[in-house]
Every structure is written in C-alpha cells, then in structure tokens.
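[INFO] parsing input record for histidine kinase
[DEBUG] input buffer:
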Amino acid sequence: QKEKNPISGIKSQIKNYAEMKEEEIAQLKQMEQYRKEFLANISHELKTPIFATQGFILTLLDGAIDDKKVRDRFLKKAAKSLNSLNILVEDLLTVSKIEAGEISMEFEEFDLQVMIVDVLEQVEQKAEKKNILVTLEVPNDDPIYVDADYNRLKQVVINLVVNGIKYNNKNGFVKVILQVNEDTVSVHVKDNGIGIPLEDQNRLFERFYRVEKSRTKKQGGSGLGLAICKHILERHDTVITLESEEEKGSTFSFDLKLSKEVDNEDSEF
Ligand code: ADP
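[DEBUG] output buffer:
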C-alpha cells in the first residue's frame, strides 16, 4: 500500500507532542531548580556582609567604641563589609540587566593593545601588593583593531586579570597574550596560580559559583565576575574557554573578529 496510513501518522504526531511536552516539562523543572538555587545563593551572599556589619556595630555598642584604636579598627571593618555589599549589588544588577537584554552594547573600533594597557594600569596596585608581575605579550607593535564595546570588554579583561591575581600565590605572574590570526585575535589571560579542579571547570561561569576550596573562599568576591564575562562575550558573538590544572595555573581565552576596515593598508596615511 502506497498511501500512508493516516491513523499511524496521527499516532506518531501525538507521540511527538507527548515527547515535546516531556522535554518542555523537564526544561521548566530545570529552570525552576536554577531559580531556587539562585535565590538561595543570592540570599546567602547578601547575608554575609550584612551579618558582618551587624556584628561590628554590636561589638562597638558593647564597649569597643570607648577605645579609640579598637573603635577605628571595627569601623574600618564595617565600612569594608558595606563596600562588599555594594559591589555585590552592583554586579547583581549588571548580570540581571545583561540577562534581560537591557544593556545595549556600544560597538566602536579601537586598538585592543591600548585597552589592555589601560587594564594593566588599573590593576597595577593590586598586583604590587602580592608582588605579581602582570604583562602584555603581543606579536609586534602594530595596532590590533577590533569592533567591540570598549568599556564592557575592558571589564571582561579586568575581571580575568584580577582573578589571575586573586587566585595566585605571592610572586606569581599574569600574562595577557594577544595572538593575531587571519581574521581574529585570540586573547589569553594566563596565570600560574592555584588552578581550578576539573570537576568545577564547567560550572565556573554560572552565577555565584565559587570553587569550594579554603584558599578560594578566603578571597572576597561575589562569584558573579565570570558570569558577567560570559554574557558580555556572548554579546560579542564569542565564547570564553578555560584550560586549567590544579597548582599549575589557569588560562582563560576568547577570540574576537579583527576589524576589517582599518586593517586595510589603504586606510593608513
Ligand atoms: P569571584 O572571584 O567573585 O568569586 P568569579 O565568577 O570571578 O567570582 O569566579 C568564580 C570562581 O572561579 C572563583 O571564586 C574561584 O574559585 C574560581 N576562579 C576564577 N578565576 C580563577 C583563576 N584564575 N584561578 C583559580 N580559580 C579561579
């Protein structure tokens, strides 16, 4: 019989719907799970600096306020906690705005090297405190033009370099390596720090995910930096990748398209 059996056609269609529903339900359940985890994490992260500040104030009220030295120490600690809280809320706003598509990227053409030098200046003090050498490696002095959002891309590189400093030992290094390919430039941020265990590597870019190791938990941070990086790079049509080995170090990398117009020799005069 050449003609298709209409009943079996309908049956298979019903089966398709049923499967689709199951898939959809699984997806919804997964999203609900993420939402719950997100809320639990956010509450925990917000509570930490709030409780700390509360503790410092209570200690002051308890008598510490009478001793000028002790008072100053606790006031400084309270201010520091409030500062963490502020950074956390700001990061949170950035993530939610980017995820909701509310942040528009402002693309412009610029020399990537200029931006990286700008980053290196900004992180200098932090690096000096741990005697960490932060350097830029480029193939030559030619400008490397890209079409990107200068400030947001700078934020990405700052986050990566600051992590390279934070999760590093004293006297370590962080290298920003620019590698020019035919149509793209690869940006690598390489450190010789504590590294990231294999089992944590694919969850690292989730909001609030932090490696459960005493040394990394001791470092202040919101666990939002890499999530922000991932989103910003997605808006530049690219992805961030990671290679890391515990106790050896980590390299975070992404590619950007080279800007064609300025790359053309005719445009130079
Ligand atoms: P934060 O640094 O605020 O915790 P991030 O999203 O920037 O948040 O990083 C998430 C986690 O990934 C960090 O808590 C740390 O455990 C780990 N991590 C990030 N960068 C590095 C690095 N260069 N070396 C080792 N661990 C890192």
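[INFO] The helical segments are 6-61, 68-99, 112-129, 150-166, 198-201, 214-217, 225-234, 260-263.
[INFO] shutting down worker
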